[in-house]
Specification:
alpha/beta, binds cytidine-5'-diphosphate, 207 residues
Length: 207
């Protein structure tokens, strides 16, 4: 079974993807980490403005060495969204995502363009949303928990900026696939959101 989960920053899609993968015993790819890894390398080398260099970095990416702990910072999220708007970067990361999705037995992938571009043939597609305020609150707590100094206002501004950039870009913008089910997690806790996601996936995959 192939499950595609998309949605904006801090909507809860990553948590749901991980939980669904455990439930169905499927491999899981957080595709945001790929863009974060490219963004992080561009930042370290001072190459964020260099389109050609960012595409070279994406082509040479070692996907065995993706460390969520070091890649989930606010600065790297911002850099990821900058490089993710570049068609050459997206093209460089396309095939490895499709290969991951093609594993025997299926997989769970989460990101921005899984249901639309990477796996249009997915058995179940979820589009996970929540209001910007609730997403900012979740991201703020997450960053605080990691010891990153920040304010709620700064996180909300970052979320709004990232939404605009991810939705407004020409190349694979964040957009709901026509056959995706919307899951609004604004008023849902993790367990409730997981129960709703599981029910949707079971209904779609069982058809
Ligand atoms: O954790 P969060 O939702 O904030 O972000 P992420 O999923 O780690 O993705 C970081 C950035 O990578 C996003 O803001 C997108 O610009 C980009 N991205 C993308 O363009 N396509 C994907 N499939 C996944 C991430």
């Amino acid at each position: 079974m192939l499950i595609a989960i998309d949605g904006p920053a801090a909507s809860g899609k990553g948590t749901l993807a991980r939980r669904l993968a455990v439930h169905f015993r499927l491999p899981h790819l957080d595709t945001g980490l790929l863009y974060r890894a490219v963004g992080a390398q561009c930042l370290v080398r001072g190459l964020l403005a260099d389109e050609t260099a960012s595409a070279d970095i994406a082509r040479a990416l070692n996907t065995d060495a993706l460390n969520p702990d070091t890649l989930r910072t606010a600065d790297i999220g911002e850099a990821a969204s900058v490089v993710a708007a570049r068609p050459a970067v997206r093209a460089a990361l396309l095939e490895l995502q499709r290969q991951f999705a093609a594993q025997t037995g299926g997989a769970v992938l989460d990101g921005r363009d899984i249901g639309t571009v990477i796996c249009p043939q997915a058995d179940a597609k979820l589009f996970v949303t929540a209001t910007p305020e609730v997403r900012a609150q979740r991201r703020f707590r997450e960053l605080e928990g990691r010891g990153e100094a920040t304010s709620f206002g700064a996180v909300l501004e970052d979320i709004r900026k990232r939404d605009a950039r991810d939705s407004g870009r020409a190349s694979a913008p964040l957009v709901q696939a026509a056959d995706a089910v919307t899951l609004d997690t604004t008023a849902l806790g993790i367990e409730e959101a997981f129960a709703a996601a599981l029910a949707q996936v079971q209904a779609r995959a069982g058809r």
